[in-house]
């Protein structure tokens, strides 16, 4: 096992010494929603229906191209994440949904919960080049820090910023990334289209009760798809 690790390290160091470094910028649309999970319920029933929330994101990627087939990407991202909550969903398990008390508890319209993050991704790219074009797949992970949150009701048109401390909201998130993309060489760099899916592993419910949300799920995780268009410029060999 030691020999295998040494060989892998030597390979990456050798490729790094002959690699190219790229710096880029991209932006695009985000499609996100919460994954909610009641860990106290064996049947994992969730009465609060989460729906997709549309937002945007900005990436400043840094790519270390080890060779024509392998690259390592990191950088800094600004991400809109969050969810919509179906206002017709009850907070409770109701036997008689025509009951007037139950009806009075139904939310007036959908609720939007938008969470804005600064994120640091780290992924490995496997690329197949075709002349001026290439396609790639990537996988890795990320860590994110929550910098702003807001709650808006579409029924009452009311909006408020979330207080992370009062809401018992976890400001740290981490998870996995999988994605695909395509590039075309242009000038000293290349245009690219990138599609990725982020799978949050951190429980946003810091103390098992997120007061701002209209449901009492024990575990809440981020999920999101991101579609970006951008440009990467070749800064030359790694020195």
Task: Write a concise keyword list for the protein shown above.
single chain; 8-stranded antiparallel barrel
Description of the molecule:
Strand 3 (53-65) and strand 4 form a beta hairpin. 9% of the residues lie in helices and 58% in strands. The protein has an eight-stranded antiparallel barrel with strand order 1-3-4-5-6-8-9-10. With 239 residues, it is mostly beta strands. The chain has one domain: Porin (Beta Barrel). The two termini are 30 Å apart. It has helices spanning 2-17, 100-105, and strands spanning 20-37, 50-51, 53-65, 70-85, 111-130, 133-153, 159-161, 172-186, 189-200, 219-237. The protein is built from two helices and ten strands; from the N terminus they run αββββαββββββ. The model is unreliable at 4-17, 90-96 and 99-105 (pLDDT under 50). The protein is elongated and about 50 Å long.
Summarize the structure.
The protein is mainly beta and 239 residues long.
> How much helix, percentage-wise, in residues?
under 10%
Main β sheet profile: 8 strands, antiparallel, barrel
At CATH's second level, what is the architecture? Beta Barrel
Contiguous low-pLDDT stretches (5 residues minimum) are 4-17, 90-96, 99-105
Counting DSSP E segments of at least 2 residues, the number of strands comes to 10
Strand ordering within the main sheet: 1-3-4-5-6-8-9-10
| Beta-strand percentage range | over 45%
Mean pLDDT level: 78
Q: What's the gyration radius in Å?
A: 22 Å
Order of helices and strands: HEEEEHEEEEEE
